[in-house]
Write a structure and sequence with these properties.
single chain, 5-stranded mixed barrel, globular
């Protein structure tokens, strides 16, 4: 079994647990506006691929389409795990999320917090500045950049 197949199975298992819990959590969510970079959580948390900007763009797309959960990282470094954008039914391997990988966006939505994890139900993307302008020259060769 390939690594990507294993990650897809893991992402599907996470979705089976997390998505039903979202409806129960939605009652106590609060409205927020978040600005930051869209990035896959695997590279962001593990530090394996450095996971910033254009130097990480293609990897972020592969991870998102492979089912790795996607987050917004704000200017302080806080991560918000995106569970849904708009009325999309798909959360894992969502092509809409992959299309905005490494973009700097501002979103409006509902923030849910459980056990130190910040989940975000995005109602709308208020602003999309596109791919942020970090390069290999500025941030190192990927993978294993810094």
């Amino acid at each position: 079994m390939t690594i990507m197949s294993q990650w897809r199975i893991l992402a599907a298992a996470i979705a089976l647990v997390v998505i039903p819990a979202v409806s129960a959590m939605a009652e106590d969510g609060r409205r927020v506006s978040i600005t930051g970079e869209i990035s896959d959580t695997w590279c962001t948390i593990s530090g394996l691929m450095f996971a910033k900007g254009t130097a990480h763009h293609q990897c972020a797309i592969w991870c998102a389409l492979g089912g790795i959960p996607v987050s917004i990282r704000d200017g302080k470094g806080d991560l918000y795990l995106i569970l849904r954008i708009g009325d999309d039914e798909d959360s894992a391997a969502n092509p809409r999320i992959a299309k905005i990988a490494t973009h700097e966006v501002s979103v409006d939505g509902e923030l849910l917090e459980r056990d130190g994890v910040k989940y975000l139900l995005v109602d709308k993307i208020a602003d999309d500045k596109g791919v942020i302008t970090m390069t290999h020259e500025e941030y190192g060769i990927q993978p294993f950049g810094n």
